[in-house]
Amino acid sequence: MPMPAAVLCGLGSSLPKRVVPNSRLVEENGLATDSEWILRRTGIAARHMADPRTSTGDLATAAGRAALDSARNLAGSPLVPDILLLATTTPDHRCPATAPEVAHRMGLEAVPALDVNAACAGFLYALTLAKGLVTAGLYTHPLVIGAETYTTALVDPHDRDTAILFGDGAGAILLRPGTASQPGALLAEDLGTDGSRTGLVRVPAGGSRTPFGSPGTTRKDFYLVMNGKAVYAQAVRRITASALAALDRTRWSADDVEAFVSHQANQRIIDDVAGRLGVPAARCHGNLRHVGNTAAASIPLALADAAERNLVRPGARTLLGGFGAGLAWGAHTLHFPEARPLTRSPHHADHQGAAP
Ligand code: UT7
C-alpha cells in the first residue's frame, strides 16, 4: 500500500484583542527609538499584545478550536485530532508542557500531547514531525499549533532590541491522510540547527545552566537578549539555504514558487531571502506589519492571513521558511490549502489543574 500524504485540512488563528501601534509601545515603555524607525527598519507598524491574564495555552486552545471548526466546514463532518503538537517557547509553566492542558480544554481526553521548542522555527519542526506521523501511518489527524506570548513571558518591555519586534498570538492547522496532488498536501522539508551560536539569541538565566537565585544574575538575565545584527545575517543565510534544499527535494525551481510564506521577523530579512531565491515580491505573503514577530505562531498566522484574504489559490505551489533561536531553521513545500481559516478569541483557563 502506498504511503499516504499528510494534507492540511483546517486552519485556525487567535490574536489578543489589544493592538499596540509603534507610537504607543515607544511612549509607554520609554524606548529610545521612534515609530518611524521601527517601521522603516523592520516593517512592523503594530502588534497584538496579550494582557497579563492571557496565557499561551489560552491562545493555543482558541486557535486549535478554530482549526477544528475550519476542518469540519471543509469535510462536512467533525474531524477529531489523535495527537496534539504545540510549538512554543513560552509555555504556561516551566513544567509541565502546555499541550496536555490545551488538549484537555479542547475536549481531547487522553490524546498524546507534547510541546515542541524550536523557537521561531518551532512550527516547521512540529509540522515535520506531524507529517512523519501521518505518512508512517502512526496517527491520522495531528493538530499542530504554534502559540506564543513573548511580550508578557520573555521580552523586557524596556529593551529596544527586542521589544520593538515581538507580538503575541496563535495559529493552528489540522492534518489528515490524503494524496500528494491535493490542495494542502505537504511535500518536502528541510530542517537544521547550529548550537554553536546559541548565545546570539537566548534567555541567559532561569534554566538549569543558571537557575533562579544564581549569584551575579540580574533581572535582565531572565529576559530574551539578542544580537540583532548577527541574528539577521544568520536568518537570511539559513532560510535561503534551507528553502533551496526543500525546493530541490520537491523538484521545484524558485520560478515554480507561487507563494512564499516566511517566518515574520523583519521585512528586510524576508525581502532579502526572496531576492536571493529569485521569488518576486508579489508572491511573498505575510502579516508582519500588523502582528510583529509572533515566533512559533508566525507561520500559521501568516498562512491563515493569506488564505483569509484570498491572496493564494488553493493548490498553489507554496514555500514556507523559518528561523530562530537555537539556532534552528527550516523550510517546507506544500500545495496551498483550500481550508477557509477561522479565528477565535482567547478565553482564560477555567481551572488551574488538580492540586496534588
Ligand atoms: O525571530 C527570529 C529572531 N529575531 C530576528 O530575526 C531579528 C533579526 N534582527 C533584526 O531584525 C534587526 O537586526 C533589528 C531590528 C533588531 C535591528 O535593526 P538593524 O537595522 O540591524 O540595526 P543595527 O543593529 O544594524 O543598528 C543600526 C543603527 C545603530 O546605530 P549606529 O551605530 O549606526 O549609530 C543602532 O544603534 O541603528 C541603531 N538602532 C536603533 N535605532 C533606533 C538599533 N536598534 C534601534 C532602534 N531604534 N530600535
From TrEMBL:
Residues 247-334 form the Beta-ketoacyl-[acyl-carrier-protein] synthase III C-terminal domain. Pfam families: ACP_syn_III, ACP_syn_III_C. InterPro entries: ACP_syn_III_C (IPR013747), ACP_syn_III_N (IPR013751), Thiolase-like (IPR016039). The keyword Cytoplasm applies. Keywords: Acyltransferase, Cytoplasm, Transferase. Signal peptide: none annotated. The keyword Hydrolase does not apply. It comes from the Bacteria. Residues 114-195 form the Beta-ketoacyl-[acyl-carrier-protein] synthase III N-terminal domain. NCBIfam families: PRK09352.1. This is Beta-ketoacyl-ACP synthase III. It comes from Kitasatospora putterlickiae.
